[in-house]
Every structure is written in C-alpha cells, then in structure tokens.
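note to self — DONT lose this again. spent like an hour looking for the file last time. sequence + predicted structure for the chain T wanted, 365 res
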Amino acid sequence: MALHPDFPNSPHAILNPDVRWFPADEALRESSYEKLLPPLVHELRKKIKAWRDNGYEGAAGTSIALLNWWFNQEHMLPKAGGTMEKFQYYFAQQEAVESIIYLYDAVKVKDKYDLLRFDSSGAVTDYRSVVGYFTRVIMKDLRLVSGYDVLYGKVKYFIRDELFEKPVDLDSLNTLRNLSELEAGKTLVETFKKQINALTVQDRGDAKIRDTIKLRKTRPFVVKEQGYIIPKKSIFNKIIGDSRLELQFAAFLEDCDDIISYVKNYMAVHFKIDYVNAKGDISNYYPDFVVKKSEQEVFVIETKGLEDLDVPLKMERLKQWCVDINKAQSEIKYDYVFVDEESFNQYQPKSFNELIAGFREYKGT
C-alpha cells in the first residue's frame, strides 16, 4: 500500500483526489494508477471535490442545508464529566455522504444502471471497468462469494459477441455508451442471473439438518415503536405486529386452548428459508409465526394481507421445506398454514384446529 508524501495525518482533513491511498508502491502511481483503481472512482472523487468547492451546486435545497449542517457547522457533544467535546465527521464519512447526494441530486443517478451514464461525460473510458462493474453486480445479486475471474471472462465474451445484434469492439466508446442504456444493462444482468440460477438451483432429492434454533438463546433485540400485545404463550415479552393482521393473529393464538406456545419470527430469531423469487433471484423468506401445537407437532404460519407475485413461490418453498424436514427427522412433524386477511376476518376461527381445517390454500388438496 502506498501513501502519497502529502497524505495528511488527520482523518478529518479534506483529501485532494490526487493524494489518495493507492494499492501499490508509490513509484507506480504515475504509470499504473488507473489500472489498479477503477477509473470511475478517481473521476468521481474529482467531480465531488469540484462540486464541494462550488457550494454543492445542483443539489436540492434540503440536501445543501444538511450537508452544510453536518460538515460546515461546529458540533459539541457532552462528555461523562459534564464537559463538552468537539465532534467532527471523518473525511471518509463526509465523502461517502457527498457521493450519494451528488449522484442522486446533481447527476440524477437513480439506480445501479445509471452509474454507467458517466461514460457519456468521459468518466469511464475503459471497458475493463465496465465489465468488472457488471460482474460485481451479478455476483452481488446472486450472493456469489467466489469465481470473479471466471465470471468476468464470461461477461466480457457475452458483451462482445452476444449482447448486441453483431459482435462489437469493446474499446469503442460507442459500445460503452450503449452499455450505459438501461435495456442493455438489464438484459446483460438478468440473462446471467437466470442462467446461473438454472445451473445452481436444483432439487438434489435429499436434505440434511445442519443446525437448529433454540429460541431461549435468542439475544435481546430492539424493535421500532409500533403496535404490540403482551403475550402469555410466547417466550418473548412483546409480540410486535408488522401489520394489523399479525397482531390480530397473535391475539387469536393467545386464545387458542389447543396450542402450547408460539413465536413471532423476528429477524433476530434467524429462521429463514431460501427460495427463488419472481425475478429469478435467490432470496430469503421469513415466515411470520411458528406455533407449537403439541410436543410432536409444529406449524409454520404465513399471514398475508395483499398477495404479491412472490407469495405462491414462498408457499411452494415452505411446503417443500416441511417435506424435507419431516424426512430428515421423525421426532416432530412440521406443517404449514397460509392465513389471508380476508378469510381470517370473514370466518373468524375459534380454535387452532378449526384454522387448520379451514385454511387450506396452497396445500395442494
């Protein structure tokens, strides 16, 4: 790692883009800087410096007011002894916030594809950074942790030979401009995601229990202020509802004499099931409730107000999860129930057994 001779000692100092950290020996800065750092990074830093020096011109009024408040006003914080201490953001924090506001307000970047439109202003002139960008987008969306070098080559080939009507010259600025268009970027990313999922998401025909969740070991967690009930049949001291239906259903479970206990599946519980969503991406599904009906029966409950395209996919995956877990062990039988708000309010089941008998959607029978 190389630090420029003029690199300041203070983490609060405003850095000139030309004296930034460099991932190689300082002697290579002049000859290799753009090869070892994506061109967009260095160009963006220069543009943000000029934008900062010009009073954040082009940003929304609220954004300018916030930027000046955060970074140009003195802030004093109380210390334990009753004295006051000056607080100042690190420059890295300041530049990160400025980057987001600059991209969103000043140059109208609204999504990841819009980043490539810097090409039209000369910020990106090397196809390698563009190929690398798309490779990283695909890996992030699919949560791939390795294989960048292999995927990079595939993306490069696809752009050059398959993406457009005829093979293109990757060094051509016209090619880079075409890649900055939303349709081209989406086609590239979605094609790779679909094909990779087709290769990796397969029914192996078996399942193994690799870990278990003990609710009593759930660490304390903070939730936002919203509606709740104080439960008597749950290990948690509050049941927080993300919707009116969830609170109604929790209250229903409290009155069910034919169950032992239940839990709201908070994020802190870490009970999640992976599935392929409507876009073809691998995603995580967090069922709403887990109900212990008896020592030998556990039900996973999904409650829903308005259905979306992912609901049938989640329920199909939950159905398969129950099949798999029941094959992998025999001590407890797992089953599932889908509870839609309209039917729940209309039929108002009086017991959990009545709920099981009446709510059969996505059961396949």
